[in-house]
Amino acid sequence: MVTAISGFEPTSLSLVAELIGTAVFAASGASAAVGKRLDLFGVVVIGTLCALGGGAVRDILIDAKPLVLTDWRYPLVAVLASLVVFRFHPALSRMRPTMLVLDAAGLALFTVVGTLKGLDYGFAVYAACIVGVLSGIGGGILRDVLVQEIPAVLREDFYAMAAVIGAIIVSVGARWESQIGHWTLMLIAIATIFVVRMVAIRYRWQAPKPNI
Amino acid sequence: MVTAISGFEPTSLSLVAELIGTAVFAASGASAAVGKRLDLFGVVVIGTLCALGGGAVRDILIDAKPLVLTDWRYPLVAVLASLVVFRFHPALSRMRPTMLVLDAAGLALFTVVGTLKGLDYGFAVYAACIVGVLSGIGGGILRDVLVQEIPAVLREDFYAMAAVIGAIIVSVGARWESQIGHWTLMLIAIATIFVVRMVAIRYRWQAPKPNI
Amino acid sequence: MVTAISGFEPTSLSLVAELIGTAVFAASGASAAVGKRLDLFGVVVIGTLCALGGGAVRDILIDAKPLVLTDWRYPLVAVLASLVVFRFHPALSRMRPTMLVLDAAGLALFTVVGTLKGLDYGFAVYAACIVGVLSGIGGGILRDVLVQEIPAVLREDFYAMAAVIGAIIVSVGARWESQIGHWTLMLIAIATIFVVRMVAIRYRWQAPKPNI
To answer: Which helix (DSSP H) or strand (DSSP E) does residue C54 occupy?
Structure first.
């Protein structure tokens, strides 16, 4: 078990970070739904799915119990964040730069946690990377499919590549986890994804396009 | 086990009701597919998916064997209903009010049965509600995604809210099931969803929209 | 176990055939993504999903470990084939007749292998057919949903019908497998799907459309 670390109780820290990620991703989904003029229920569903869909896909693939059905705090936070966006979205849309930063943090966190969960369930390094990247980007893909957009992550920028890089760091690094330390490794991977994503936004990096 | 009730053999009644729900949902999916000018196979697939997709998503989430793969009567009824729509759709489109009533009955039934299945599999009240609502609305969402519409349930009216109310009734009420009685509880929840949905159609209730 | 045949080592043959099918389906997905001007990552994801998505849906439904997470050769071949399309697509688009032939071979192979896997996991004949057809057409449906098209398989031609016919042959024939022989049965079913598909392309067969 990669996550069983003795002599240190990080559960609450990790939980708080994950719940922040959940809130941010829910806000991102709810904003897209508001933009499509969906009703209250639609905003809540898209927000919740965006926040928890990536993890649900991950859990279905690795045959874990879906987190959304076993810990009520995740759906509660997702629903509340969606309701806040539904009510206050004009003010929130002025906070777009802040949202981009939080979204990058959510991507970093979800990807790393998902990759570690894949390793915990005994999957190979490459498979844990697939599972981790899906955890990070899956919710956004579901959001875009439901609001009838080609998933932004597949079209626009250096979003998914950042997740891939982080997933590789954490899954390869896990072999030397006893030397590196569990939390050091996680922090390196999370920071890498976050920084790559921020730099990509700042300098408008784009993944290469096909020449047609 | 919530569903194990002694001294009473309701299986056939419950089965007939569920098969009617399956046929109605299949007809709804097949009608959407006919409207998009899909071919025979497309009509049958969308009809079947609309009828059985919600239950399949439920079964995957709670890690049950998908009903569609274990009881041939469900896919058979779904395929037959889709074929009937394919052949007779002009006549059926004149029956739209009837279809709306049957669809509300299907929604009520699938939501309640799905919620109970979630409880049976040991999930918490809130999780059983999620599972039940997905059972009721999931098929319609899959239908709309495949025919390239934003899911109607997320956009238009008081459809999903009715399912949420019914799922809460049945999952909370299950705690006092021995006093209320299994079938009384089911009937109350089914009737509530059905009546809320009918009243919502009659008075054009809508879930609130965001103010933009 | 349907697939346990003594005195003959066909694994490598079967594996090579499946990897060719994977490459062809990945190329088909990557071509669609290039046509939508997705970036490098989008092309790779759509290509991989098109190649491996049908099998993943199958494995989730029958509760098997997803092949994509247990055998690295499948995702590797899918990613490589997608990269080749990304780099060389103008040349490849001149090979469209060849691609159609290879795609028909992929459809035949994936459907038959998927149906056999369904039988192996103890599902009934009809359920194994559903699972097998989903293995064959599921990847293409995911591809079309992500690039925002109504799935071609539901709209255009005699694609899915060929898969249905082959799945029925292999799942019904499995009862007399000891007389027919495992590989003879597989070859008959694969050849049937392939020939039906080729004839359908040649003579522009279409599944019937609804009369409106």
So the answer is: helix C40-62
For residues B42 and C209, what is the distance between their CA atoms, to the nearest angstrom? 9
| Encoded tokens for C186 | 């597989």
Sequence-distant (≥ 6) Cβ neighbours of residue C55 within 8 angstroms: C66, C67, C68, C74, C110, C114, C135, C138, C139
Average pLDDT estimate for A164-178: 92
Instruction: Report ipTM (2 d.p.).
Output: 0.81
Tell whether the model's pLDDT for residue A200 goes beyond 70: yes
What is the overall mean pLDDT for chain C? 86
Residue C111 has pLDDT above 60, yes or no: yes
pLDDT in tens, C70-106: 999 999 999 999 999 998 887 666 667 777 888 888 8
| Partner residue facing A45 (CB), from B149, B154, B210 | B154
Q: Helix, strand or coil for residue B15?
A: helix
Secondary structure (DSSP) of C99-142: HHHHHHHHHHHHHHHHHHHHHHTT--HHHHHHHHHHHHHHHHHH
Give me the sign of the Cα torsion angle A37, A38, A39, A44: negative
Average pLDDT in the B164-169 region?
Answer: 95
Q: State the DSSP code for B209.
A: P
Q: Which residues of A touch B (CB under 8 A)?
A: 33-34, 36-43, 45-46, 56, 60, 63, 65-66, 68-70, 72, 75, 86, 89-90, 145-148
- Locate all alpha helices (DSSP H) within chain B, ordered by sequence: 11-35, 40-62, 67-70, 73-93, 96-120, 125-146, 159-173, 177-180, 182-202
pLDDT at B47 over 90: yes
Question: How many whole angstroms separate alpha carbon C5 and alpha carbon C181?
Answer: 9
